[in-house]
Amino acid sequence: MLSGSPAKSRVFFILDNLKQKGNQMSMYRITRFTAPDMEKAGEIVESMRSTLEDMGAEFIDLVSYGNGKGVVIAKYSSQEAMDAATDTAKNAFAKMIEAGAVEKDSIHPHTGTVFKSF
Length: 118
Description:
This protein is of the alpha+beta class. The protein has one domain (24-113): Alpha-Beta Plaits. The protein is 42% helix and 25% strand. It contains 4 helices and 4 strands. It has helices at 6-20, 38-47, 49-53, 79-98, and strands spanning 27-34, 57-64, 69-76, 108-113. It has a 4-stranded antiparallel sheet with strand order 2-3-1-4. A hairpin with a 4-residue loop joins β2 and β3 (69-76). The radius of gyration is 18 Å and the shape is globular. The relative contact order is 0.24.
């Protein structure tokens, strides 16, 4: 029984927030890659900082988890924002590949929506 319960109030609060946000869910582009020269990859993206900052992501993190393996995690406010940033993301990887910092065949992009947050 939800009538008047805190749980019912919480459900309505969540539904109201979704309506206010136009039912848009955050989107992530997560791209795994291999970089023989992680430092060089970092220098390349740093040289593109203003372009990357202007592409509409809420944040972009480059993570190295050792042995030349890494991942880019980019969060966008919507599918539309992520789609608009696609060419810029591809261009950044193209520059890293051209410089020999990232292996072309190692790039594996994945996208998804947030379905649960804590």
